[in-house]
TrEMBL record:
Keyword vocabulary terms for this entry: Cell membrane, Chaperone, Membrane, Protein transport, Transmembrane, Transmembrane helix, Transport
Signal peptide limits: none
Lineage top rank: taxon: Bacteria
Localization annotation: Cell membrane; Membrane
Domain Membrane insertase YidC/Oxa/ALB C-terminal as annotated: residue spans: 30-233
PANTHER family, alphabetized: CYTOCHROME C OXIDASE ASSEMBLY PROTEIN COX18, MITOCHONDRIAL, OXA1
Membrane-crossing residue ranges in chain numbering: 29-49, 94-117, 137-162, 197-220
Biological processes annotated in GO: protein insertion into membrane; protein transport
Name of this protein: Membrane insertase YidC/Oxa/ALB C-terminal domain-containing protein
CDD domains: 5TM_YidC_Alb3
Pfam families per record: 60KD_IMP
Length: 248
């Protein structure tokens, strides 16, 4: 790890995890991981909120985009279509790339979280503690004496996969693109989104069955918090309609 990355991201997050472990009654690392995930989610809330709003805005202008595709169905009109698309984005104040940027910003934070949790579960890396953070010596990886967070846990893996499924399904575009000339890209995007709804939970389950339970607990907690954020951002009516539409 580079010195800058360690100083700015990894060390603060690792110290926060150990501090939470020290102050939580019973020194429960499981509760410390949940508390750390909540704090990180709150810090990143504005960034992910912007991403969700961008995705919602793109969904809302889908009918106008389809109308433009009907207006310019031929390949010869591709340049005019692109120009009017850009004008539509400008008029509606929508940046099609703005939903991706927050994810790129969060990536280094998630890597630091992963490494911090790994160090904490292995009771290592205490040389990076700040002077005002007590060195616990060792950290018990048992959560309530039931789950060993240092080993893969089937229950946590399954719960993480289920939460990943509902998180992804909530974000499916409500208005499925119509099969009109020039809309093949939207059709492909819709197909890819549906595939991701089922592919991501499978990937999450496989990873959860291989990674320590503490990391899976973090992933489960983050998924639940993201579902809550999507619910609050998109609105209860929107979330329910999307789930109901998928069942049809």
């Amino acid at each position: 790890m580079s010195g800058l990355y360690t100083t700015i991201l990894f060390q603060p997050i690792f110290n926060l995890l150990v501090w939470l472990h020290n102050i939580i009654p019973g020194h429960n690392i499981g509760l410390a991981i949940i508390a750390l995930t909540v704090l990180v989610k709150l810090i990143l809330w504005p960034i992910t909120l912007k991403s969700l709003k961008s995705q919602k805005a793109l969904q809302e202008i889908q009918p106008k985009m389809e109308e433009l595709k009907r207006k310019y169905p031929n390949k010869e009109d591709k340049e005019k279509l692109a120009k009017e698309m850009m004008e539509l984005y400008s008029k509606e104040k929508v940046n099609p790339l703005s939903s991706c940027l927050p994810l790129l910003i969060q990536l280094p934070v998630f890597i630091a979280l992963y490494q911090s949790l790994s160090r904490g579960l292995q009771s290592s890396g205490f040389d990076l503690l700040y002077p005002f953070i007590s060195n616990p010596g060792t950290i018990s990886t048992s959560m309530f004496g039931i789950i060993d967070l240092a080993s893969p846990n089937v229950m946590l893996a399954v719960l993480a996969a289920i939460s990943q499924f509902f998180q992804a399904r909530m974000m499916i575009t409500r208005q499925q693109p119509k099969k009109v000339p020039g809309s093949k890209d939207e059709q492909a995007l819709a197909s890819m989104n549906k595939s991701m709804v089922y592919a991501m939970p499978v990937v999450t389950l496989i990873i959860g069955l291989r990674f320590p339970g503490g990391l899976t607990l973090y992933w489960l907690t983050m998924n639940l918090l993201t579902i809550l954020q999507q619910w609050l951002t998109l609105g209860r009516k929107t979330a329910v309609s999307e789930v109901s539409e998928e069942k049809k």
